[in-house]
Design brief:
The structure holds two protein chains of two kinds.
Chain A (H helix, E strand, L loop, with lengths): L2 H22 L3 H26 L8 H19 L3 E3 L5 E2 L4 H23 L4 H20 L10 E2 L14 H23 L2 H11 L1 H6 L4 H27 L1 E2 L6 H14 L6 H19 L4 H14 L3 H7 L6
Antiparallel strand pairs in A: 1-2, 3-4
Helix pairs in contact in A: 1-2, 1-6, 2-6, 2-9, 2-10, 2-11, 3-4, 3-5, 3-9, 4-9, 6-9, 7-9, 10-11, 10-13
Chain B lengths: L5 E10 L2 E11 L4 E5 L6 H9 L6 E6 L2 E2 L5 H7 L1 E4 L11 H13 L13 H13 L15 H14 L4 E5 L7 H14 L5 E4 L3 H7 L2 E6 L2 E6 L1 H6 L1 H8 L5
Parallel strand pairs in B: 3-8, 3-9, 6-7, 7-8
Antiparallel strand pairs in B: 1-2, 1-4, 4-5, 9-10
Helix pairs in contact in B: 3-4, 3-5, 4-5
The chains are: A mainly alpha, B alpha/beta.
Chain lengths: ~325, ~250
């Protein structure tokens, strides 16, 4: 096992241990924090597929996080209010079943990511950053001005959605659900980046000219990565809505897009568990420094600056050195 | 004589007032090395870029195996069998040498969008890539990051990738550039054999190599082919001597 694999296992085991330990010592709030870190980490892992492995600096992934969140919120509120989701052309009821919600979130995000990606990927560099931001802002303002689902005030989910007979209102149970999905997403990202597709994605980032001269259009490879990445982020969004039992346009705002990028850069671009450790550090700082000062993002900014200047591989790179996954 | 595999008819390309390609017509026959020489700025690289589809010509047409390929983009042209090597080797620096070639193999097989099976366990893919690395003389260095290869080794890696595409035509933009005298001697021997795998359109500055390798030579000056012929024809052509070879051949 490489050092990075050992570190990845340690990070995951650490997160699990924190949640279990906190639960055993009667600290549900800490379990809640661990859940938050796991979910944000999952979103970061998803973004990393586009940003880290594909070199696509998307500044609009909050759109997919929010779409996942709204998928959960809209389906749940329809079910909880005993109203149909829609009546035409067929009557569709809402649902509180987590698997159906997850699936809806992932498919909806994929379908929306496809045209957004197809248009954005015609550009590159700074233009790509700006156009993804623009699309996300369009969706953000759409959510604000759409009164049916709470507009600016957002949408509450009274009771957490259900998964079989599990008590999803129990913080530990919900943590374990989120953790299991995090493992699943991490596993899928790892598998994809080590597959034939992963090789093509690496080439699309490092040398698109060479990829073209092999007869493969970089556009197709990048679009696939963009859509898959959006789907993973949407799953995290659906869980985040359930964690807070609340969805609002904040989930769609550009701040969140920025935070996701911070997780990836802080933890290590193109490192499987990088965004997770990034999210953990972010949640910790937010909690710890946020209790001391309202300006807790200032020290976060300093840390980010240090990482960018002195540890290009992020925290993971600092501990394990050069990326060995090649 | 057999039919040409690649035929370029009256190709024209202008950048503003500059006519980079001015009615170029040339062809490539199976089994031959056709060298394209000319002074700097004669439009050699521009011509190669039009043949591979990286830039569009203003006029003229390109036929490959008797079919026009003008409407195909660069990826399509690569897939039907035009393999290119670059003046500056184009590789994925963060991947190992063998992974670079593995990607070329999967691209040729048309099996890029496979998401689950790890390539590290795809023994057929690895074996195929290793064979091409050995052919290019880089077998020993398979596990090295491409970024850590020397200049000459990167060129060998490029050739391994081009071989892995099993092309019908090689288009090479200055393969000798930057090689040591020893390296370019080995490259000359390698290319001399390679013409039997697929014909080569060779853009090259190294006259010694061109005269040693080429079956035919075309001389490009200011975007126009001023002469095409065998090595002896070109050496003897007075127009070529004044326009290009100058004191080198005098």
């Amino acid at each position: 096992m490489s050092r990075e694999t050992i570190l990845n296992v340690a990070i995951l085991a650490g997160l699990l241990a924190v949640a279990l330990g906190a639960w055993a010592s009667g600290e549900p709030f800490v379990v809640q924090l661990a859940t938050r870190a796991a979910i944000l980490g999952m979103a970061g892992v998803g973004l990393n597929l586009a940003l880290g492995y594909g070199g696509l600096v998307s500044f609009g992934h909050a759109a997919f996080f929010g779409i996942g969140g709204y998928a959960a919120g809209i389906l749940a509120s329809a079910a909880q209010n005993y109203e149909p989701l829609m009546t035409w052309p067929v009557e569709l009821p809402g649902t509180t079943s987590m698997p159906i919600i997850w699936l809806t979130a992932v498919i909806a995000a994929g379908l929306i990511a496809l045209p957004i990606g197809a248009l954005s990927l015609r550009t590159g560099g700074v233009h790509f950053i700006m156009i993804t931001l623009a699309f996300a802002q369009m969706i953000y303002y759409f959510a604000i001005s759409w009164p049916a689902y709470g507009g600016e005030d957002g949408l509450s989910i009274y009771v957490r959605n259900s998964l079989g007979t599990l008590d999803t209102m129990s913080p530990l149970t919900f943590f374990l659900i989120a953790f299991a999905l995090l493992l699943l997403v991490l596993g899928l990202v790892l598998v994809a980046t080590r597959s034939r597709f992963g090789l093509a994605l690496a080439m699309a980032r490092q040398n698109p000219l060479r990829l073209t001269s092999m007869g493969v259009r970089p556009f197709n490879v990048r679009l696939t990565a963009f859509v898959l990445s959006a789907m993973a982020v949407a799953l995290a969004g659906a869980l985040y809505a359930d964690l807070n039992r609340f969805v609002s346009p904040t989930m769609l705002s550009w701040h969140l897009s920025g935070e996701l990028i911070v997780f990836v850069i802080l933890g290590g671009v193109g490192r499987p568990c990088g965004p997770l450790i990034g999210a953990c550090i972010y949640v910790l700082l937010e909690q710890w420094l946020g209790g001391l000062t309202d300006y807790w993002q200032f020290p976060l900014g300093v840390i980010l600056l240090l990482v960018v200047l002195f540890a290009r591989g992020g925290v993971i790179g600092l501990v394990t050195g050069r990326n060995a996954n090649a | 004589m057999p039919k040409p595999i690649l035929r370029i008819n009256g190709l024209e390309k202008s950048f503003g007032a500059l006519k980079a390609t001015n009615g170029v017509t040339l062809d490539l026959y199976p089994g031959e090395i056709h060298a394209l020489i000319g002074p700097n700025g004669a439009g050699k690289s521009t011509l190669i870029k039009q043949i591979v589809g990286e830039i569009r010509p203003d006029a003229g047409s390109i036929d490959f195996e008797g079919q026009p390929i003008d409407r195909l983009d660069a990826a399509d042209r690569a897939r039907i069998g035009l393999a290119r090597t670059f003046q500056v080797s184009q590789i994925a620096p963060e991947l190992s040498a063998v992974r670079n070639v593995m990607l070329a193999v999967e691209a040729r097989e048309g099996r890029v969008f496979r998401f689950f099976r790890p390539v590290s366990r795809d023994l057929d893919l690895i074996a195929a890539a290793m064979a091409f690395l050995h052919d290019a003389g880089l077998g020993e260095r398979a596990a090295i990051h491409a970024a850590d290869l020397s200049h000459g080794e990167r060129r060998q890696l490029e050739f391994a990738m081009a071989l892995a595409l099993k092309p019908k035509v090689f288009l090479m933009d200055e393969p000798m550039a930057g090689l040591s005298p020893d390296g370019s001697k080995r490259m000359t021997a390698f290319l001399s054999e390679l013409r039997h795998t697929a014909p080569i359109l060779l853009v090259e500055h190294d006259m010694e190599a061109v005269f040693a390798l080429a079956d035919r030579i075309s001389v490009l000056v200011y975007g126009q082919v001023i002469a095409t012929g065998t090595v002896a024809d070109i050496r003897a052509n007075p127009e070529v001597r004044t326009a290009y070879l100058g004191d080198e051949a005098a």
